[in-house]
């Protein structure tokens, strides 16, 4: 997983206050990491996917994602928000994993990523560590222990 989630993709103490600002930031992160050339394309992809149904998965966690031809390589961005944000009318979120998957490899990579992350995110110990660890290197190590 160390090629999919790098230390530069981990954002702790994020002061973002809305889903909109989070999607905007994630789009910028993807563009800065050269995952995608145009941040707007990624932003639209996130919103298009979110329009299908909420990517909130419970326990204060959301996994927004999109599969686009313009995405260069599979990537995961992690944000631990300082304050929970309203994700849906009945859900507050403070941990966000944003998945970017190339359309050409979408099914295989997309399903593997989602299933492995979902498996880890039901582990209370893992989620507790995500919330308590305060160093990017520690979070990166935690994610890199996940097998794809």
What is the fold's blueprint, element by element?
Layout: E1 10-14, H1 19-32, H2 39-52, E2 56-58, E3 61-62, E4 65-68, E5 75-88, E6 91-102, H3 106-121, H4 124-132, H5 136-144
Parallel strand pairs: 1-5, 3-6, 4-6
Antiparallel strand pairs: 2-3, 5-6
Helix pairs in contact: 1-2
For the structure shown, list the relevant keywords.
alpha/beta, globular, 148 residues, six-stranded mixed sheet, Mannitol-specific EII, Chain A, single chain
Please characterize this protein's 3D structure.
The protein is an alpha/beta fold and 148 residues long. It has one domain: Mannitol-specific EII, Chain A, CATH 3.40.930.10. 42% of the residues lie in helices and 27% in strands. It is built from five helices and six strands; from the N terminus they run E-H-H-E-E-E-E-E-H-H-H. It has helices at residues 19-32, 39-52, 106-121, 124-132, 136-144; strands at 10-14, 56-58, 61-62, 65-68, 75-88, 91-102. Strands 1, 2, 3, 4, 5 and 6 form a six-stranded mixed β-sheet that branches. A hairpin with a 2-residue loop joins strand 5 (75-88) and strand 6. Helix 1 (19-32) packs across helix 2 (39-52). The longest helix has 16 residues, at 106-121. The radius of gyration is 14 Å and the shape is globular. The mean pLDDT is 90. It comes from Holdemania massiliensis.
């Amino acid at each position: 997983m160390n090629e999919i989630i790098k230390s530069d993709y981990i954002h702790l103490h994020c002061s973002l206050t809305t889903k909109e600002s989070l999607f905007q930031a994630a789009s910028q992160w993807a563009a800065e990491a050269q995952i995608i050339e145009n941040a707007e394309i990624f932003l639209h992809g996130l919103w298009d996917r979110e329009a299908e149904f909420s990517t909130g998965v419970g326990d204060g966690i959301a996994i927004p994602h999109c599969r686009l031809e313009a995405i260069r390589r599979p990537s995961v961005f992690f944000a631990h928000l300082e304050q929970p944000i309203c994700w849906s009318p009945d859900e507050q979120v403070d941990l966000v994993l944003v998945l970017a998957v190339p359309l050409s490899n979408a099914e295989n990579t997309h399903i593997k990523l989602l299933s492995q992350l979902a498996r880890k995110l039901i582990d209370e110990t893992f989620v507790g560590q995500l919330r308590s660890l305060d160093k990017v290197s520690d979070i990166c190590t935690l994610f890199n222990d996940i097998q794809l």
